[in-house]
Every structure is written in C-alpha cells, then in structure tokens.
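Posted in: Structural Biology > Protein-Ligand Complexes

Title: Requesting predicted complex, 2'-deoxyguanosine-5'-triphosphate in pocket

I'd be grateful if someone could produce the 3D structure tokens for the following input. Sequence and ligand are given below.
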Amino acid sequence: MKNKEIADLLKRMGTLLEIKGENAFKIRAYYKAADNIAGLSEDVAVVSEEGRLGEIPGIGKTIAEKIGEWLATGQLKAYGKLTAEVPETLLEIVDIPTVGPKKAHLFFDKLKITTIDQLRAAATDGRLAQLPGVQQKTIDNILHGIGVVAKGMERINRGTADQIASEIVADLRQLSCVRKIDVAGSFRRGRETVGDLDLLAEATDPAEVMRVFTGLPTVAAVQAHGDTKSSVRTRQNVQVDLRVVDGESYGAALLYFTGSKYFNIKLRQIAKKGGMKVNEYGIFKELKNSERKLAGQTEKECFAVLGLPFVPPELREEMGAAELFDEDQPRRVPDLIEQRHIKGEFHVHSTYSDGKNTIAEMADKAKELGYHYLAVSDHSQALRVAHGVVEADLKRKRREIDALNTKEKSFGILMGSEVEIDTNGKLDYNDRILSEFDVVIAAIHSGFQQTSQQLTKRLVNACRNKHVNIIAHPLGVHFGKREPYDVDFDEVCRAAADNNVFLEINSFPIRLDLDSSHVYAARRHGVKFVINTDAHRAEHMDYMKFGISIARRGWLGKADVLNTRTWKQVAAALKK
Ligand code: DGT
Ligand code: CA
Ligand code: CA
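-- Reply #1 --
Done. Output follows.
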C-alpha cells in the first residue's frame, strides 16, 4: 500500500506551503488530506482507481488529481515546482525542536535561511536576534535543538533498524544457499538506537549471497564488495555489513560480532586465564607449538568451554556484565522476561482521543496477540491537540466498554486514562473522576523547559495521588527531538516505589522511555514496571517487542513487570 507515502508527501506539501506563507485554507487542506489518508484502512490506489477519492473527507478535486498523478507517474509536478521555491531542506529546519513551520517561515522570509547550517550561523552571528519576537532564550533553544537533531542523525532508532533488518533478512533467507542468517551487533543486544547493522550468515555459496545483498533494491551505495564480506548504505542512509562464515565458526562469529566490545574483551581475559584463545573463528586451547579448536559451531558451546553460563545478548554490556564474571562472587544470570509472558497492556489510545481505531478494533488486536486484557487509556481533557476526552464523553466510553465486555468471557477491556500532569503537578481530572477509572496513567506532555526541580516535583506529586497507578514515558524522550528530562531520577524512583506506582517502559520506537540504563537503576530502588506500547493504531501494539528488549537489558524478570500477571493479580497489585 502506498498510503503512507502519499500521506507523507501531502504533509510535506502542507508544511512547505506554510513556510512559503500560503493562505491557511490551502495549508489545512493538505494536512487534513494527509491525516485522512494515513488513517485509511483501504488501499488508496484502489480507492483512486474506483474514482472514490472524493469520498475521503478533506479530499477535494485538486488534491484528488495530485494523488492520481502520483499514483500513475510516481511524480508530482506541483511538488517539484514548490520545492524549487521552498527547498526541501527547510523540512529539516521545521523538525528542529522548538522551531516549527511558523519560525521557519520567518527565517526563510526575512533571512532566506534554507538549511540547518545557515540557521546555526544566523543564530550565532546575531542575525536571528534582530528578528521580531526572537529572544535570546529562543535562540538558545534552537541551538540546543540543532545539537539534538545532529545526535539523532548519527544513530538510527530501533524501529527503523528493525524494519531495515527484517526486510534484508527476509530477502536473503529466500536464497536456497543460505542456511542461517542473524542480525548481530548492538541490534541483537536490543539497544534502543543502532549505529549500523551487522548481519551474519552461513551459506554454501557466499559469492551468490554477496551478489544478491549488494544488489538489493534498498541499497543506495556499495561501500565494499568482497568474497565473504560486504558493506552497503541503504536508501535511508544506514550502513549494513554482511559476513558469510562457515558452519564450524558460526557460533564464535555470532558471539564476536554481537559484542559488545567490552564483553568481547572480558571473554578474552577469561579465556587467557584458562590457557585459551577466543576469536571470530572459535575457542582454541593454546598448546606448546600449536592450538586445538575446542568450540565454534554454536554460541552455547563457546560459553560452555569457557566455563561460563550462557549470557543472553541483552546482558552483554558493561552495565551488569562485569558482575556476571566477578571472580569471587559471580552474579547469577537472571531469568529474563520474554514476550510470551505478556498478558495485556494498559496504554493504548482509541478514537475517543487521538487513536485511529475504535475500542473494539484495539481489543480485537489485543486478542489476536493472545492477551487477556487491554486498558484503553485515552488522553485527558487538557490535551486539546490530542482531542483529550471531556467528562461528558467518559460516561459514553464507559458504556461502550461495558457493552463490549458483556459479550466476552476470557477477555476484558479496562477503562483507563492518560491524565495530564499540569505544569504545577496537578492532575487534569478531579479525584471523583479519577476514582472511576480501572487504571490511571499520569503523564507530562507540556512544560518540558521547566527546571529539574519543577519537573521532579510534578512527577513526585503525580505518584502521591491516591488514584495514579502508572507514570507514562517518565523521562519525556523523543528520538531526535528531546533528550531525557534532567530530573532527580532517584527521587522519582523513591516516590514510585513508596506509592505503589509502576514506571512505564514505553515501547513506541521514537520514545523507548524508560531506557535500559534507567530501568536498571530503577530496579535497584525496588521500582516495579509496566511495558506499554502507547499504540495510536492497532498495529502499533506490535511494538511490544521493543519494550521487552529494554526490560531485558535492564535485567528485568517476569515478576518485575505488571503486565505479565493475570487480571485478578493486576487488580490486587494496583491497590494503593
Ligand atoms: P553500534 O553499531 O555502534 O550500534 O554498536 P555495535 O556494538 O554493533 O558495534 P560495531 O558495529 O562497531 O561492531 C559490531 C560488533 O563487532 C561489536 O559489538 C563487537 C565486534 N567488534 C567490532 N570491532 C571490534 C574490536 O575492535 N574489538 C572487538 N573485540 N570486537 C569488535
Ligand atoms: Ca553495529
Ligand atoms: Ca558494523
């Protein structure tokens, strides 16, 4: 389906028109059309072919023609004309935190700024400061934002990495000469962001694998093309390395290329003490004038000959791994949480706020995933941009949930809410309303610029409210836009643990918040966790796997996570 591509194109047009300073009607038309196509369950190509584009709300004749042109030719003349006037690089400027289309228009209109470099220059040489309404604080925020964006471009988020890796792996798996293929590196260790992708394969015809790999449609440039090793850059500008090795060495190579570097060094030290040597070909016993291979085929036997327990990839980091190998008192390898333990989740949205699917549709997806329960937690009233639910609509939502539940025996829909914590730490619904939800999630969506003390106080206040069960995305991370808040995390953890509040691991790929290092730290404070997806569409519930990776990297077992329990156990665990 081309829906997403078309929606993106229309949204880009809307933004560029806004920067150009077109009239508001025209701009809104593009945004609205983009939104409605993104939310369409049908293939827009089919709708277009059947001449039904006009039936989609917000799509008039002009936009319908443009969609038709793009579907037929893969191009849009109007877009080419527009970007000749307002270059596409302006879209990068709009994406800088605190900038947006209005400021981009101002900078473009008054200073002819079209690139991030030009904006940085104008911010530092004093030209921005001369524009109307631009304060020093605005300029500081923009410079900080440019730094965050630059950092975000160095690494890719896990969602993007997952998409690229699964496509390439699926393509290569189809070759009959490929016997095994795995993604190694930081991706296999479950990291929240990935520098590049490292693939490893066993194949009877390595040259054929290299030929197909370097010729994949997603490849934009081939950086190296060897007999058993190649590197490419994809169209999204992500580097992917692929190595083909013998079956005899597959386990050793997987171990080596999974890393981390720190972990590999540790293994080498341990091997050395036992008169052994580790490299990507195997584990060897060092003899007087020769060496003997002890293991290499599987990772498991490599660990075994080193006298070590199998260490799951997520734990092969500096954080924690040193303790696993402590000589006097090695820490036991924990039983980590697994995806199959998840019995439901608490943070998904429906059409009651800014979700694209109805409660019933979200519930169907949850059942498909084998869940026993699902809390539908829409935004609260103050979050207007996300159509927060006003009090009158809460009754309607409750009735709808009750009606759906009477038809079910083994699945329960819960009435939740994602309630705004305002800039003073007050919640957006009063206690009477809050007491009527089955589960209450508190969250911050505004006032990110506050001081560390203020932000800490807001989170702590929310924990102390007698109805709050969960703090959503506790550190406000937004990939490429916002770094974690600078809060007193220890204090937040204490407040959560003391008030029986669960900290969320938000699995949405641009959030991944808490991240694994904060999970690891919070667990030591006795904090309990919940893994949610923050789904705004049914298919977003598949993001659960990203949250599981973070939980595993943070050393969490099944018992540390609320949504591994049955609903009955959950109800008891939520009592404050
Ligand atoms: P990334 O790509 O920055 O997210 O992180 P990694 O861990 O995937 O790092 P990468 O792609 O440079 O290398 C993949 C693995 O290969 C790494 O985790 C361990 C192994 N490796 C790479 N270079 C070295 C090295 O110089 N020494 C050792 N012992 N291992 C290495
Ligand atoms: Ca890598
Ligand atoms: Ca690499």
